[in-house]
């Protein structure tokens, strides 16, 4: 494991603080068994961010209601800190879960990490 990584039984989180954004990459299962420990670590990463945050979901293999609640809570905290937060590259089952719960409208969701990072470079029109 390298610096900036944590590993739990079912999920791994890697954080990369870059000059203009932070990437939080998750892999494994976002479920009731993994989210309690992960929540605190994600909040620490969010507090250190200081720039927009991209959550890379490309390696998330499973997500249940607890995983969705984790993402919603992190989004709420990011908004309270005035940080932009986007989701990148959810696999089809996770994308479907976001869609059927309506959370795909609450989050900005990009098809890939590259697309999410590219969107950070474009100014938002008001």
Automatic annotation (TrEMBL):
Q: Does the keyword Transmembrane helix apply?
A: yes
Q: Which NCBIfam families match?
A: ant_ant_sig (TIGR00377)
Source species, domain of life: Bacteria
Cross-referenced PROSITE patterns? STAS
- Keywords for this entry? Membrane, Transmembrane, Transmembrane helix
Q: Which organism is it from?
A: Actinomadura parmotrematis
Family in the record: Belongs to the anti-sigma-factor antagonist family.
Residue intervals passing through the bilayer = 49-72
Read off the InterPro entries from this record.
Answer: Anti-sigma_ant, STAS_dom, STAS_dom_sf
Stated name of the protein: Anti-sigma factor antagonist
Which residue range or ranges hold the STAS domain?
11-120
């Amino acid at each position: 494991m390298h610096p900036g990584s944590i590993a739990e039984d079912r999920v791994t989180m890697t954080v990369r603080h870059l000059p203009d954004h932070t990437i939080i990459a998750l892999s494994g299962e976002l479920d009731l068994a993994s989210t309690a420990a992960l929540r605190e670590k994600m909040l620490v990463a969010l507090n250190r961010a200081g720039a927009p945050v991209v959550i890379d979901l490309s390696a998330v293999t499973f997500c249940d209601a607890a995983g969705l609640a984790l993402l919603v809570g992190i989004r709420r905290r990011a908004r309270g800190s005035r940080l932009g937060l986007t989701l990148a590259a959810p696999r089809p089952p996770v994308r479907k879960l976001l869609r059927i719960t309506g959370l795909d409208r609450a989050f900005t969701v990009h098809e890939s990490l590259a697309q999410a990072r590219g969107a950070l470079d474009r100014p938002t029109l008001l």
